[in-house]
Amino acid sequence: MLHLTDVCYRYRTGAPLAVDQVSLQLNPGEIFGLLGPNGAGKSTLMALISGLRRPQAGAIQRAPDVAVRGGFALVPQEHAFYPMLTCRENLEFFGGVLGLKGAVRQSRMDAAIAATGLEQVANKRASECSGGLKRRLNLAIGLVGDPRLLLLDEPTVGVDPQSRAFLLEAVQTLRSQGKTIVYASHYMEEVQQVGDRVAIIDQGRLLCCGTLDELLTQTQVRLSVRTNRPLTPELHARLVKECGLETAVDEQGWLSFMIPAGQAVEDVLRNLRTQGLPIASFQYGSRHLEDVFLKLTHRSLRD
Length: 303
What we know:
Number of domains: 2
CATH topology of the largest domain: Rossmann fold
Helix content: 25-40%
Structural class: alpha/beta
Number of strands: 13
Radius of gyration: 23 Å
Number of helices: 11
Protein backbone atom coordinates (compact mmCIF):
# COMPACT_ATOMS: atom_id res chain seq x y z
CA MET A 1 0.00 0.00 0.00
CA LEU A 2 2.74 2.45 1.00
CA HIS A 3 6.49 2.13 1.47
CA LEU A 4 8.79 4.81 2.94
CA THR A 5 12.57 4.42 2.80
CA ASP A 6 14.89 6.72 4.79
CA VAL A 7 12.64 9.75 4.27
CA CYS A 8 14.06 13.09 5.50
CA TYR A 9 12.67 16.63 5.58
CA ARG A 10 13.70 19.92 7.21
CA TYR A 11 11.88 23.24 6.90
CA ARG A 12 14.92 25.47 6.45
CA THR A 13 18.67 25.15 6.07
CA GLY A 14 20.34 24.53 9.39
CA ALA A 15 17.10 23.61 11.18
CA PRO A 16 16.76 20.20 12.86
CA LEU A 17 15.22 17.50 10.70
CA ALA A 18 11.45 17.44 11.16
CA VAL A 19 11.45 13.92 9.67
CA ASP A 20 14.69 12.03 10.13
CA GLN A 21 15.35 8.86 8.09
CA VAL A 22 11.88 7.38 8.54
CA SER A 23 11.28 3.98 6.99
CA LEU A 24 7.99 2.09 7.28
CA GLN A 25 5.61 -0.07 5.30
CA LEU A 26 1.82 0.20 5.39
CA ASN A 27 -0.23 -2.95 4.77
CA PRO A 28 -3.67 -3.01 3.11
CA GLY A 29 -6.68 -3.01 5.43
CA GLU A 30 -4.93 -1.96 8.65
CA ILE A 31 -5.10 1.00 11.02
CA PHE A 32 -1.56 2.22 11.48
CA GLY A 33 -1.30 4.31 14.64
CA LEU A 34 1.31 7.08 14.54
CA LEU A 35 1.89 8.20 18.11
CA GLY A 36 3.99 11.12 19.31
CA PRO A 37 3.93 14.38 21.26
CA ASN A 38 3.12 17.72 19.67
CA GLY A 39 5.97 18.74 17.40
CA ALA A 40 7.27 15.19 16.97
CA GLY A 41 6.95 15.28 13.16
CA LYS A 42 3.59 13.54 12.69
CA SER A 43 1.96 16.26 10.57
CA THR A 44 5.10 16.71 8.47
CA LEU A 45 5.21 12.99 7.81
CA MET A 46 1.54 13.02 6.81
CA ALA A 47 2.19 15.92 4.43
CA LEU A 48 5.04 13.96 2.85
CA ILE A 49 2.92 10.82 2.45
CA SER A 50 0.10 12.82 0.87
CA GLY A 51 2.41 14.68 -1.52
CA LEU A 52 1.84 18.14 -0.05
CA ARG A 53 5.59 18.18 0.59
CA ARG A 54 8.37 16.35 -1.18
CA PRO A 55 11.06 14.43 0.72
CA GLN A 56 14.51 15.99 0.55
CA ALA A 57 16.07 12.54 0.89
CA GLY A 58 14.75 9.01 0.71
CA ALA A 59 11.80 7.69 -1.26
CA ILE A 60 8.04 7.17 -0.95
CA GLN A 61 6.37 4.47 -3.03
CA ARG A 62 2.58 4.25 -3.30
CA ALA A 63 0.50 1.42 -4.69
CA PRO A 64 -0.89 2.27 -8.17
CA ASP A 65 -4.50 2.48 -6.97
CA VAL A 66 -3.43 4.82 -4.14
CA ALA A 67 -1.36 7.13 -6.33
CA VAL A 68 -4.27 7.93 -8.67
CA ARG A 69 -6.64 10.84 -8.12
CA GLY A 70 -8.97 10.07 -5.25
CA GLY A 71 -6.97 7.03 -4.23
CA PHE A 72 -6.13 8.59 -0.88
CA ALA A 73 -7.35 11.46 1.25
CA LEU A 74 -5.71 13.58 3.94
CA VAL A 75 -7.95 14.77 6.78
CA PRO A 76 -5.81 17.51 8.37
CA GLN A 77 -5.68 18.67 11.95
CA GLU A 78 -7.06 22.07 10.91
CA HIS A 79 -10.67 22.53 9.80
CA ALA A 80 -10.56 22.16 6.01
CA PHE A 81 -13.92 23.37 4.74
CA TYR A 82 -15.75 26.58 3.83
CA PRO A 83 -17.60 27.88 6.93
CA MET A 84 -20.15 29.87 4.91
CA LEU A 85 -21.34 26.73 3.09
CA THR A 86 -23.58 24.05 4.54
CA CYS A 87 -22.19 20.60 5.26
CA ARG A 88 -23.81 19.22 2.11
CA GLU A 89 -22.56 22.12 -0.01
CA ASN A 90 -19.02 21.52 1.23
CA LEU A 91 -19.27 17.87 0.24
CA GLU A 92 -20.70 18.81 -3.15
CA PHE A 93 -17.86 21.26 -3.75
CA PHE A 94 -15.07 18.85 -2.80
CA GLY A 95 -16.73 16.06 -4.77
CA GLY A 96 -16.62 18.38 -7.77
CA VAL A 97 -12.92 19.06 -7.16
CA LEU A 98 -12.37 15.30 -7.43
CA GLY A 99 -14.26 15.24 -10.74
CA LEU A 100 -17.34 13.49 -9.40
CA LYS A 101 -20.60 14.24 -11.19
CA GLY A 102 -24.28 13.41 -11.19
CA ALA A 103 -25.49 10.27 -9.48
CA VAL A 104 -21.98 9.16 -8.52
CA ARG A 105 -21.30 12.38 -6.64
CA GLN A 106 -24.68 12.22 -4.94
CA SER A 107 -24.21 8.63 -3.80
CA ARG A 108 -20.70 9.41 -2.49
CA MET A 109 -22.05 12.42 -0.59
CA ASP A 110 -24.85 10.36 0.94
CA ALA A 111 -22.41 7.64 1.98
CA ALA A 112 -20.02 10.16 3.57
CA ILE A 113 -22.88 11.82 5.47
CA ALA A 114 -24.12 8.45 6.74
CA ALA A 115 -20.64 7.29 7.76
CA THR A 116 -20.10 10.41 9.87
CA GLY A 117 -23.62 10.78 11.26
CA LEU A 118 -24.29 14.19 9.70
CA GLU A 119 -27.82 13.46 8.44
CA GLN A 120 -29.52 15.87 10.88
CA VAL A 121 -27.14 18.77 10.14
CA ALA A 122 -26.41 18.27 6.44
CA ASN A 123 -28.14 21.57 5.54
CA LYS A 124 -26.61 23.53 8.42
CA ARG A 125 -23.86 26.08 7.80
CA ALA A 126 -20.48 24.67 8.78
CA SER A 127 -19.73 27.78 10.86
CA GLU A 128 -22.78 27.04 13.03
CA CYS A 129 -21.73 23.46 13.83
CA SER A 130 -20.23 22.40 17.14
CA GLY A 131 -16.59 21.38 17.44
CA GLY A 132 -17.47 17.71 17.23
CA LEU A 133 -19.63 18.19 14.13
CA LYS A 134 -16.85 20.15 12.44
CA ARG A 135 -14.46 17.26 13.04
CA ARG A 136 -17.01 14.88 11.55
CA LEU A 137 -17.44 17.19 8.53
CA ASN A 138 -13.66 17.16 8.07
CA LEU A 139 -13.80 13.37 7.99
CA ALA A 140 -16.81 13.30 5.65
CA ILE A 141 -14.95 15.48 3.13
CA GLY A 142 -12.09 13.01 3.25
CA LEU A 143 -14.49 10.15 2.53
CA VAL A 144 -16.41 11.71 -0.38
CA GLY A 145 -13.83 10.43 -2.86
CA ASP A 146 -14.08 6.86 -1.46
CA PRO A 147 -10.29 6.63 -0.95
CA ARG A 148 -8.46 3.36 -0.35
CA LEU A 149 -5.96 5.11 1.96
CA LEU A 150 -7.14 7.59 4.58
CA LEU A 151 -4.68 9.81 6.45
CA LEU A 152 -6.11 11.17 9.70
CA ASP A 153 -4.04 13.85 11.45
CA GLU A 154 -5.19 14.42 15.05
CA PRO A 155 -8.86 13.78 14.13
CA THR A 156 -10.27 14.23 17.66
CA VAL A 157 -8.50 17.37 18.85
CA GLY A 158 -10.83 19.69 20.75
CA VAL A 159 -13.93 17.47 20.76
CA ASP A 160 -16.15 16.30 23.60
CA PRO A 161 -16.00 12.68 24.87
CA GLN A 162 -19.16 11.66 23.00
CA SER A 163 -17.82 12.96 19.67
CA ARG A 164 -14.46 11.31 20.33
CA ALA A 165 -16.15 7.96 20.96
CA PHE A 166 -18.19 8.34 17.75
CA LEU A 167 -15.14 9.19 15.66
CA LEU A 168 -13.14 6.26 17.02
CA GLU A 169 -16.02 3.90 16.26
CA ALA A 170 -16.34 5.38 12.77
CA VAL A 171 -12.63 4.80 12.12
CA GLN A 172 -12.93 1.15 13.13
CA THR A 173 -15.99 0.75 10.90
CA LEU A 174 -14.06 2.18 7.94
CA ARG A 175 -11.30 -0.36 8.54
CA SER A 176 -13.90 -3.17 8.53
CA GLN A 177 -15.03 -1.86 5.12
CA GLY A 178 -11.55 -2.43 3.73
CA LYS A 179 -9.99 1.00 4.04
CA THR A 180 -6.39 1.45 5.13
CA ILE A 181 -5.91 4.20 7.71
CA VAL A 182 -2.96 6.11 9.15
CA TYR A 183 -4.12 7.49 12.49
CA ALA A 184 -1.77 10.17 13.84
CA SER A 185 -2.39 11.34 17.39
CA HIS A 186 -0.77 12.34 20.67
CA TYR A 187 -3.56 10.61 22.60
CA MET A 188 -2.10 7.28 23.71
CA GLU A 189 -5.43 5.73 24.68
CA GLU A 190 -6.88 6.37 21.20
CA VAL A 191 -3.97 4.80 19.36
CA GLN A 192 -4.01 1.87 21.76
CA GLN A 193 -7.74 1.41 21.11
CA VAL A 194 -7.79 1.49 17.30
CA GLY A 195 -4.28 0.67 16.07
CA ASP A 196 -3.47 -2.70 14.48
CA ARG A 197 0.16 -1.60 14.39
CA VAL A 198 1.69 1.34 16.18
CA ALA A 199 4.76 3.48 15.56
CA ILE A 200 6.10 5.99 18.07
CA ILE A 201 7.78 9.07 16.62
CA ASP A 202 9.71 11.77 18.48
CA GLN A 203 12.01 14.51 17.20
CA GLY A 204 11.41 13.28 13.68
CA ARG A 205 12.63 9.71 14.24
CA LEU A 206 10.66 6.48 14.49
CA LEU A 207 11.52 4.99 17.86
CA CYS A 208 9.67 1.70 17.40
CA CYS A 209 7.06 0.05 15.20
CA GLY A 210 5.00 -3.11 15.57
CA THR A 211 1.74 -4.59 16.75
CA LEU A 212 0.48 -3.49 20.13
CA ASP A 213 1.40 -6.85 21.67
CA GLU A 214 4.91 -6.65 20.20
CA LEU A 215 5.48 -3.19 21.64
CA LEU A 216 4.05 -3.99 25.05
CA THR A 217 6.22 -7.08 25.47
CA GLN A 218 9.25 -4.78 25.22
CA THR A 219 8.37 -3.20 28.56
CA GLN A 220 8.49 -4.36 32.12
CA VAL A 221 5.24 -5.04 33.93
CA ARG A 222 3.75 -2.27 36.06
CA LEU A 223 2.84 -2.61 39.72
CA SER A 224 0.63 0.13 41.18
CA VAL A 225 0.05 0.35 44.92
CA ARG A 226 -2.09 2.60 47.06
CA THR A 227 -0.56 3.49 50.40
CA ASN A 228 -1.80 5.16 53.57
CA ARG A 229 0.96 7.75 53.65
CA PRO A 230 2.96 9.81 51.10
CA LEU A 231 6.23 8.61 49.64
CA THR A 232 9.07 10.61 51.19
CA PRO A 233 12.34 11.26 49.28
CA GLU A 234 14.19 9.13 51.85
CA LEU A 235 11.83 6.19 51.41
CA HIS A 236 11.94 6.59 47.64
CA ALA A 237 15.75 6.40 47.68
CA ARG A 238 15.64 3.36 49.93
CA LEU A 239 13.18 1.57 47.64
CA VAL A 240 15.40 2.18 44.63
CA LYS A 241 18.53 1.03 46.50
CA GLU A 242 17.17 -1.94 48.44
CA CYS A 243 14.45 -3.21 46.10
CA GLY A 244 16.06 -2.41 42.76
CA LEU A 245 12.94 -0.59 41.53
CA GLU A 246 13.63 1.50 38.47
CA THR A 247 10.90 4.10 39.03
CA ALA A 248 8.39 5.11 41.66
CA VAL A 249 5.96 7.73 40.42
CA ASP A 250 2.95 9.19 42.22
CA GLU A 251 -0.02 8.93 39.84
CA GLN A 252 -3.36 10.16 41.20
CA GLY A 253 -2.73 8.69 44.62
CA TRP A 254 -1.12 5.51 43.28
CA LEU A 255 2.59 4.70 43.33
CA SER A 256 3.63 3.08 40.06
CA PHE A 257 6.65 0.76 39.86
CA MET A 258 8.22 -1.11 36.97
CA ILE A 259 8.98 -4.66 38.09
CA PRO A 260 12.53 -5.80 37.20
CA ALA A 261 12.73 -8.79 34.86
CA GLY A 262 12.59 -12.11 36.67
CA GLN A 263 11.41 -10.65 39.98
CA ALA A 264 8.18 -12.03 41.48
CA VAL A 265 5.52 -9.50 42.44
CA GLU A 266 5.14 -11.20 45.85
CA ASP A 267 8.80 -10.46 46.60
CA VAL A 268 8.38 -6.82 45.56
CA LEU A 269 5.33 -6.36 47.79
CA ARG A 270 7.19 -7.98 50.69
CA ASN A 271 10.17 -5.67 50.17
CA LEU A 272 7.92 -2.62 50.04
CA ARG A 273 6.38 -3.50 53.39
CA THR A 274 9.80 -4.30 54.88
CA GLN A 275 11.04 -0.86 53.87
CA GLY A 276 8.15 0.78 55.75
CA LEU A 277 5.60 1.32 52.97
CA PRO A 278 2.12 0.26 54.16
CA ILE A 279 0.07 -1.06 51.21
CA ALA A 280 -3.71 -0.66 51.27
CA SER A 281 -4.31 -2.12 47.78
CA PHE A 282 -2.44 -2.87 44.56
CA GLN A 283 -2.88 -3.53 40.84
CA TYR A 284 -0.53 -5.70 38.79
CA GLY A 285 -0.04 -6.68 35.16
CA SER A 286 -1.15 -3.50 33.35
CA ARG A 287 1.05 -2.40 30.47
CA HIS A 288 0.56 0.79 28.48
CA LEU A 289 1.98 2.57 25.47
CA GLU A 290 3.13 5.25 27.89
CA ASP A 291 5.47 2.67 29.42
CA VAL A 292 6.98 2.01 26.00
CA PHE A 293 7.38 5.73 25.34
CA LEU A 294 9.01 6.39 28.71
CA LYS A 295 11.42 3.53 28.17
CA LEU A 296 12.48 4.93 24.79
CA THR A 297 12.58 8.65 25.54
CA HIS A 298 12.79 8.94 29.37
CA ARG A 299 10.21 11.73 29.36
CA SER A 300 6.47 12.26 29.42
CA LEU A 301 4.57 11.85 26.15
CA ARG A 302 2.57 15.02 26.91
CA ASP A 303 5.50 17.40 27.35
